[in-house]
Amino acid sequence: MDKRRPLIAGNWKMNKTVQEARDFADDFRERIADITDLDILICAPFTTLSALKDELEESIVHIGAQNMYYEAQGAFTGEISPVMLKDLACTYVILGHSERREYFKEDDELIAKKVKVALDSGLTPILCVGENLALREDGKALAYVRGQIEKDLMELTSAELQKVVIAYEPIWAIGTGKTASAQDAQEMCSAIRTTLAAIAGSVAQKMRILYGGSAKPGNIAELMAQPDIDGGLIGGASLDIQEFIQLIQNVR
Fold first, then answer.
1. Containing domain of residue 145, as a range?
2. Which of helix, strand or coil describes residue 210?
3. Per the structure, how many domains does the chain have?
4. Is 2 within the bounds of a domain?
5. Which residues contact residue 16 at a Cβ distance below 8 angstroms, ignoring those fewer than 6 apart?
6. CATH no. for residue 57?
7. pLDDT tens, position by position, 118-158
8. Catalytic residue positions?
9. Is the pLDDT of residue 178 over 90?
10. In 79-181, which residue ranges form alpha helices assigned H by DSSP?
11. Which residue in 83, 102, 204 sits closest to 149, CA to CA?
12. N or C: which end of the chain has fewer CB within 10 A?
């Protein structure tokens, strides 16, 4: 089987004004222009996507959103549709992030709808799954994450599943400075791939699985050396251009 192409995805979360995003993208575009051996993605707030389209659409950097609704249009105040994201040159969208699940009470039924519509709309969904500290300490982490994947992807065909990216993010390691060990991360990502294989057969070997949770320049190489980790969903380290570029260089 061909080696899965690495993906480094920056998740800016609720950070950066339009001008800050424009300045970052203008500098970033020039400094990573020669990188051809991995995919680079920035998932930005809705307000900055237009600026990123201006700066990055013709570059090697992919543009993504951090969420979307599952309807194309309508009376859904405050929501953004996949049609709108496509119009802003987005090719990826993060769905089911732990912060969406926790703070905004998004459940697996809603997330499954979003994943299906993203695929139907030509967007690549990055489906986030992961356990909190209590589940891990109780020995329930593997079963919990397996359940998330089964519920969120159960309606998809094998052809659709092949286009999905999975991001494993141990909730206890997001923004805390704690990081799962490379061995812990590999154990879970391997279990995720086994779960995907039960759903989609051999397609699972082609699907990319990212690690998210305080990944940074100092630990990304060890994480990426694991057989079932194909990239990173990078939070804090993607906000600083020097740190993000260093992380990308350390993947190669």
1. 7-251
2. strand
3. 1
4. no
5. 24, 44, 45, 48, 239
6. 3.20.20.70
7. 999 999 999 999 999 899 989 999 999 999 999 999 999 99
8. 97, 169
9. no
10. 82-87, 98-103, 108-120, 133-137, 141-153, 158-161
11. 204
12. N
